[in-house]
Design brief:
It is a multi-pass membrane protein. With 368 residues, this protein is α+β, with helices and mostly antiparallel strands. The protein has helices at 2-9, 26-51, 130-147, 160-169, 172-184, 213-219, 325-367, and strands at 54-61, 68-77, 86-91, 96-97, 104-109, 115-121, 188-198, 202-207, 230-236, 251-253, 260-274, 280-294, 305-311, 314-321. The strands form 2 sheets. Strands 1, 3, 4, 8, 11, 12, 13 and 14 form an 8-stranded mixed beta sheet that branches. A 6-stranded antiparallel beta sheet has the order 6-5-7-2-9-10.
Length: 368
């Protein structure tokens, strides 16, 4: 048994020193306190790192088919009244809509930005949205009344359908008069809502294509009279997810002494965001290139703001992840062991330095 016990003790990696060889010093205490502070600090850092969520990006070929592309729009045109502008869309499938969009509000504003009234553009093609119009119209009207910025005379007692029909088929002279009065009063227009378009390349634009040639020429004798200055409050292609940045949000393009057409070329990347809880959010992100072309006197095209979009064949999957618990314990062991080893070496160096200084001082005292 004695030989077996001796052989087993020889494998011990943690030998114990004799009590008379273990000396406690003030320098060792200082190094110990420093090591404890370092351990606690590193432990808290590793714990916060473990509890934080990482975001992983993966790319793959986009295989989605038959889905709609939602376009969220929120823009202000401070120099164009709502009666003059229209929101139009056209895509590669051949679908072309002029001043007829799903769930789009056009709100009249004065030069100070206060709301004067609104016009709701119902979709004349897709009738399934009709049931939601009355609800959204009533909610928006009540909100404006509560804010104190709503003026009933802006509707003149007519329903939105009657107003829209009157604009399209009513007396052109009255339409010209109304738009000219709005221009004299420095009215602007805020356009916001959601467009549901086909998932193919196309464009949507804010222009005066909703007016007849006669009305447009009566209101704006010269092309340079059309001012398409605009502020983009929000432009996105689906719901937001944490960390998403839409490059056109907050964009201001104000024209002073010139007129022209703005074109934004957008590259849309289909994106799916997966939350840590397991929920998934399909959306899109995009990049943009901007181009401005000044209006020429001899041109016949009215200034407008175009958003030309195309879809990327590559889809991005963004996934939230949390680190494995085994990684946490591995890093904690490395922190504790590494700190203990470093402070041990530091303690030996400090102890030897103090001994050298004490021996040097003793030698000088003996010589004296």
């Amino acid at each position: 048994m004695g030989l077996k016990t001796t052989a087993l003790r020889s494998l011990n990696a943690f030998p114990r020193a004799e009590e008379h060889l273990m000396q406690k010093t003030a320098s060792g205490a200082a190094v110990t306190i420093l090591g404890l502070i370092l351990m606690v600090t590193l432990f808290i850092h590793e714990l916060s790192y473990q509890l934080s969520t990482t975001v992983v990006h993966e790319m793959s070929v986009d295989l989605t088919r038959g889905q709609k592309l939602p376009i969220v729009i929120n823009m202000t045109f401070p120099a164009l009244p709502c009666g003059a502008l229209s929101l139009d869309s056209i895509d590669m499938s051949g679908k072309h809509e002029v001043d007829i969009d799903t769930n789009i509000w056009k709100i009249r504003i004065n030069k100070d930005g206060y709301i004067l009234g609104s016009e709701y553009i119902s979709d004349l093609v897709e009738g399934e949205h009709t049931s939601d119009i009355a609800k959204e119209e009533a909610a928006a009207k009540k909100a404006m009344e509560d804010a104190g910025h709503f003026h009933q005379d802006s509707f003149t007692g007519e329903s939105h359908e009657q107003y829209h029909e009157h604009k399209l088929f009513g007396d052109p002279q009255k339409v010209v008069k109304d738009i000219k009065k709005a221009l004299e009063d420095h009215e602007g227009c805020r356009v916001f809502g959601v467009l549901d378009v086909e998932r193919v390349a196309g464009n949507f634009h804010v222009s005066m294509h909703g007016l007849s040639i006669y009305v447009a020429q009566q209101v704006f004798p010269k092309i340079s009279d059309v001012n398409v200055s605009h502020v983009i409050h929000d432009l996105s292609f689906g719901p937001r997810y944490p960390g998403l940045h839409n490059p056109l949000d907050g964009t201001e393009r104000i024209l002073k002494d010139e007129s022209g057409t703005f074109k934004y070329f957008l590259k849309i990347v289909p994106t799916e965001y997966s939350y840590l809880s397991g929920g998934q959010l399909p959306t899109n992100q995009f990049s943009v290139t901007e181009y401005f072309m000044s209006a020429k006197a001899y041109e016949q095209n009215w200034p407008a703001v175009y958003f030309v979009y195309d879809l990327s064949p590559i889809a991005v999957k963004v996934r939230e992840e949390r680190r494995h618990l085994g990684h946490f314990f591995t890093r904690i062991c490395a922190v504790l062991g590494g700190t203990f080893a470093v402070t041990g070496m530091l303690d030996r160096w400090v102890y030897r330095l103090i001994e050298m200084i004490e021996h040097a001082n003793k030698g000088k005292s003996i010589m004296l």
